[in-house]
């Protein structure tokens, strides 16, 4: 009896040692992923000939792609399935329909937006996030802001507000609030909870410097991911 007890103690100690020596990625095998079973489409705004907002050599399409890639990485770490509308410098047409040709940039931009919507419809995600950066003639304005469409999915507002609160809490450099917006086609047409994240103003000197900083891009991405998590907790609690 004592022999079996001793063997049991040895086996238990062995399991404890193995558990502590197992690295974090291996331990995930035993732990539930916080975003397991969730599919998210991440859209890096603009791309290719459509650079979006700019100031000197700083171009929106580069900022949005960098932040979107950080968001993708963090979401995947948490177990989510992530679909990117674009992963390269080109637009979505370059990546998904390279044989398509258009007579004008305006027509190409329109069809590019339609293709992004088609990707969401095909993938049927739980959430859609499109990432952008802002610019206006006046240089004083700054601050990240998240938008939703009143005529879009009913949960878009809750999603936008959770991401906005996360940005306010984690970055501590904006007091803006999430707002509804009418002009954004994608937010209205995709049939899933959707939000547009304007990560800041390229036209503001201080914020432009932040938006091209790799460390700040990662902080912004982390805040977006935390906001998504908070939305899901609020939605399913």
TrEMBL record:
It comes from the Bacteria. Residues 1-19 form the signal peptide. GO terms for biological process: peptidoglycan catabolic process. Coiled coil: none annotated. Residues 117-229 form the MurNAc-LAA domain. InterPro entries: MurNAc-LAA_cat, N-acetylmuramoyl_amidase_3. Keywords: Hydrolase, Signal. The keyword Hydrolase applies. GO terms for cellular component: outer membrane-bounded periplasmic space. PANTHER family: N-ACETYLMURAMOYL-L-ALANINE AMIDASE, N-ACETYLMURAMOYL-L-ALANINE AMIDASE AMIC. This is N-acetylmuramoyl-L-alanine amidase. It comes from Lysinibacillus macroides.
